[in-house]
Amino acid sequence: MADWDLKKLRILRTLHELGTVTATAEALHLTPSAVSQQLTGLARALGVTLLEAHGRRVRLTDAAQLVLRHAEAVFAQLERADADLLGYLQGEAGQVRIGAFSTAIPALVVPAASELRRSHPGLSVVVREAEAEAAYELLAEGSVDLALSLAAHAPTPRDPKFSRVSLLADPLDVALPAGHPLAGEPGLRLADLADEPWIFGSSGPWSQITTTACESAGFVPEQAHAAADWSAIWAMVAAGMGVALVPRMAMAGGLGAAGRGAGEPGVRGGREGGGVAVRVLHADQPRRHVVAAVRRGSEGAPGLARVLAALRQAAAAQTPGDTTVQPS
């Protein structure tokens, strides 16, 4: 294969544009002798004659014209590569892979990705659903660039492998059957539900979060049914089979949308629809804390920084205040 030396090809292109060796040398800050030597070396490397005498000047041969046509395509591609690289370095292009737990995807990741498609269309976000343990395994092995999880199940801030960023404290509201005697109780507290049958996961994050919140209110919840899927929990509550804590973020992601009109207004302290009444626990104020984590040292990468900023913006939109449960 011929040796296509880019530096020498640029000299040939400049000679073609300016017409003389002297003018080429001046433009490139070389001596005329150096220009001639570079072009002689290029001709030797390509195995063709590039220049021929034309009076007291030189002109490009047909072979040189052919070489230049291909060289121009190479130069154009390099310009595009430079532009793409600059975009990458400025966080305007590239790909960021996110591993996130299920309720974080519609509530945080999708709004962030949508905003980035509008503001930075060259920056691609790839999503992979994964619960905390799996998300951090993917992050450690390099399969994702950012992991979203609950703080209780994230590596500690002292973990040398990861840097953590707090995104939001997600309020936990209580879901009761719509006809429940306490559904309209003003100032409802968790302790008021101590004798109720509860619905939560048999293990994992949601089991721990529910039991911790209830124990902080002074009782151990009686688990009547075990479920981890929010739509299943919602259906059982609607059927009168028990009560459950639901994260505000899951509501924003569309949980319980069936049975409610589009844009249905919230009611002070709660909301009803689909056979379920959702009440804000103003006095108890239980929360689950959502964090993002990246491999330590990568947080300064421009593309990743833009994604983190978009996630913070989406998180801020999730916390309008506790007086009203916002419609999903």
TrEMBL record:
Q: Which keywords describe this protein according to UniProt?
A: DNA-binding, Transcription, Transcription regulation
Cite the InterPro entries for this sequence. LysR_HTH_N (IPR000847), LysR_subst-bd (IPR005119), WH-like_DNA-bd_sf (IPR036388), WH_DNA-bd_sf (IPR036390)
Q: Where is the HTH lysR-type domain?
A: 4-61
Where on the tree of life does the source sit, at the highest rank?
A: Bacteria
Q: Name one Pfam family in it.
A: HTH_1
Q: Which family does it belong to?
A: Belongs to the LysR transcriptional regulatory family.
Kindly provide the name given to this protein in its UniProt entry.
LysR family transcriptional regulator
Q: Which organism is it from?
A: Streptomyces mooreae
Q: What is the lineage of its organism?
A: Bacteria, Bacillati, Actinomycetota, Actinomycetes, Kitasatosporales
